[in-house]
Every structure is written in C-alpha cells, then in structure tokens.
Amino acid sequence: MKILMVNKFLYPKGGAETYVFKLGAQLEAEGHEVQYFGMEHEGRIVGNRVNAYTGSMDFHGGSKLAKLTYPIKTIYSSEARKKIRLVLDDFRPDVCHLNNFNYQLTPSIILEIRKWERQTGHKCKVLYTAHDGQLVCPNHMMKNPNTNAICEKCLGGHFWNCTRGRCIHGSLAKSVIGSLEGYFWKWMGVYKQIDTIICPSRFMKTKLDTDPVLAERTVVLHNFVDKVERKEVEKKDYVLYFGRYSQEKGIATLVQAAKELPEIPFIFAGSGPLAHLLEGVPNIKNVGFQTGKALETLIREARFVVCPSECYEAFGLTVAESISFGTPVLGAGIGGILELIRAGETGELYESGNIQELVRSISKLWNDNNQLLHLYSNCNSNEFKVISWYQEEIASMYGFTT
Q1: Closest CA to 245 of 204, 288, 306
Q2: Cβ atoms within 10 A of the Cβ of 209, count?
Q3: Is residue 10 a contact partner of residue 44, using CB atoms and an 8 Å limit?
Q4: Residue/partner pairs of 206-212 with CB below 8 Å, 24 or more apart
Q5: SS3 state at 19
Q6: Pair 10, 36: CB distance under 8 Å
Q7: What confidence score (pLDDT) does residue 392 get?
Q8: What's this model's pTM, rounded to 2 decimal places?
C-alpha cells in the first residue's frame, strides 16, 4: 500500500515530527511505500520522489514582502495545492495521513486530494492525527498567551474570540487571520472530507467533539513510545525536567518551585525562549537539548521527572517515555497527562499552575523513599503502546492488515 505522510515540518522539530517519522519508518519496515509532503527546509530528512514541497514560511522572520503575503497564504495556499498535486499524480497514494498542516500548508490540500481522487477515480483515504486542538482553537493550545489562562471560548465554532483575546502571539492582526481561517474552513465544510480523526487522548476527543462535524470522525488512539528494555539502574540525586523551555510548559512555575527547594538538585534538559530563567539558580543544572542515549540515561537515573504543563497536552510524550524507562512522573493534572499517570502507582498528580502545591509535591516525593521504591516497581516498558503495536492498530484505519 502507498501512504503519503503530510506534515508542515519535514525535519526534527517536536513531538508531531517524531510521530510522523517513526510511524513512516515502521510502515516501510512492514513493506509499504511511504513518501512525505510538507515545507522545504535545509534540515529536511524525508521527502517525495518528485521533490515537490512548498516554500518555507517563517512567521517570526522573513522579508517584509513575504510578511505581506502571509495573511492570504495562511488561510488558503494555491502553492500547496499545486505541489501536492505533483506528488499525488506521481505517487498515487492509497492513504494520505495528515498531521500538522494549518497555516503553512492550509486545509486547501484536502480539497486537492479529493479533487485528484474524483478526476482519477483512484480511491484515497484521508486520515488526520490531531496533535493539538487546532481544528477547534485558532491558536491550537486552548490557552490565552496574554493571561496564561486556559481558554475554551472558541469551542463550538466561536472563532472570533481568538481576535478578542489576541490569542495568536499577542497580535491583533495575526489573531484576526486565525479567526478568519477558522470561519472560512468551517463555511467550506472541508473537515467533512476527512475520513478519520485520530485523537491521542480521550481528553482531546472531548474537545474536538464540540464540533458535530468532527465528532462523527474522531477515534481515540494513544500515541506510542519506542520499545525499551527494562533495566535496573542506580538512581541519582536529581529531579529531571526535559522538553521545551516555554510558558505553556510551566517552566516559569517549575523554576520558581526549584528556588524554594534549594536543597533539591534539578536538571533541565531542553531549549526554548525561557532558557534565561534558569540562569543563576544554584540548584538548577541546564544541560541543554538532549536526545538518544544521553537523554535516556538522564531519564533512567533521575529520582523522578516533573511535567509541569500549563496547557492542554494532547498526549504527553515526556510522561510516557519516562514511565517506560522506569522513572515515575510528578505531572500537572491537565489534558492528556491525566490519562497517562496512575496516581500512586506510576507517579503523582498536582494542580496545574499551583506553585505551592508543586513545591509540596516535589518535597514530599523527594523525601519519601518508600513511595519512590513503590513507584519504581510499577514503572516499566510495557505501560504504553510501542510503535510496532501501534502500527497494527492503525492498519485497520488505513485499510490493510499487518
């Protein structure tokens, strides 16, 4: 079977890209043909046979001329339609698996897929994995970045609230574009043309189901982690955070908690716009962005991991990875994280954004060796689906069996 994986970024950038590349590789290992469509970028690691990609769009940089054209291109992209058509004509996929596509590729690619299907008579199933709440929230996080508060005002198709709250980068102009994009594609009914929407958590499904059109198409399928061996390792004296250093991930709150617990060493592994907050804190060691064996070792040897998110996580890959490596997680009780941690068994939960509760929870867990030993005994590599198992489940959605 031929599968076209679609994602705006075709280079390692975040959790969505990890999902796309690993699922694609697994499908190829099972004997299927896989190609990729998205933006061109110097770091691109996957592609398609005809080398058709859209131009890169940088909303935080770029020329003045490019910025003038962005408002139109972020709603509808004739370039994306033309480029994906080249891939469709050449590859003739049986499945188009969409991932993150809004703003850079735009939903216009769905129109082109269905147009190609009608004109050629070649049946093509369209799947979409919802890595965030983009289809029901123009800023995709269901969080107002200006107030740092969770916000669900756009749910149900009330997209003008994005403009009222200036929810996209704090910009009125960008927020207007976000609102218009939501209304335009709702009016066009484009999401009716998706066959199945894969939600990485039951939580994400409840949010997408606020739109009756989406509710008819959603299914829950938790994301996967790499298959790992269970190892007995000697735990070291530090609490670990790994991931992006940004507001929505709760970094500011965690750093403040660390300052109130000077006797507890913290290791931060990651990068992002709030990296400066870590500077000058004596009990925080910033080791920067880590991958592979180096990151695995950090996770395995930590007493526990903290996941302090202050946004609706669609899944929570850091939580799943940590538990699979045998390390419990103290997680914010928000979004998909609630489905990943068995409180008192594989970790503990606290109220997201509540700094005093976070301080108490870290201190309590750090000083309770018996509880930590109990948590260690329940964390293992079989807690979550691994990629090979996941591929078997998704196979039925594609229309084939493994």
Answers
A1: 288
A2: 17
A3: yes
A4: 207/133, 207/136, 207/142, 207/152, 207/155, 207/312, 208/130, 208/133, 208/135, 208/136, 210/136, 210/155, 210/156, 211/135, 211/136, 211/155, 211/156, 211/157
A5: helix
A6: yes
A7: 83
A8: 0.90
Query: In sequence order, what are the beta bridge partners of 96?
Result: 4, 126
The residue among 377, 274, 374, 281 whose CA lies nearest residue 326 is 377
The Cα–Cα gap between 115 and 90 comes to 15
Residue type, 334: I
Cβ atoms of 207 and 312 within 8 Å: the answer is yes
Write out the DSSP string of 316-363: -HHHHHHHHTT--EEEES-GGGGGT--BTTTEEEE-TT-HHHHHHHHH
Per-residue pLDDT of the chain (402 residues; tens, 9 = 90+): 999 999 999 998 888 999 999 999 999 998 999 999 999 999 999 999 999 999 987 655 555 545 545 566 789 999 999 999 999 999 999 999 999 999 899 999 999 999 999 999 999 999 999 999 999 999 999 999 888 889 999 999 999 999 999 999 888 998 999 999 999 999 999 999 999 999 999 999 999 999 999 999 999 999 998 888 888 899 999 999 999 999 999 999 999 999 999 999 999 999 999 999 999 999 999 999 998 899 999 999 999 999 999 999 999 999 999 999 999 999 999 999 999 999 999 999 999 999 999 999 999 999 999 999 999 999 987 888 888 888 888 888 888 765
Dihedral sign (CA 255, 368, 384, 298): positive
Alpha-carbon distance of 179 to 71, in angstroms, equals 11
Question: Rounded to the nearest 5°, which phi and psi values hold at 35?
Answer: -130, 170
CA distance 166 to 176: 8
Are 35 and 52 within 8 A, CB to CB?
no
**Bridge partners, residue 215, by sequence:** none
User: Is residue 388 classed as helix, strand or coil in its secondary structure?
Assistant: helix
Residue 243 structure tokens: 């991931």
Give me 369's structure tokens.
């060796």
Domains, the chain, in order of start with CATH, read 2-224+386-398 (3.40.50.2000), 239-378 (3.40.50.2000)
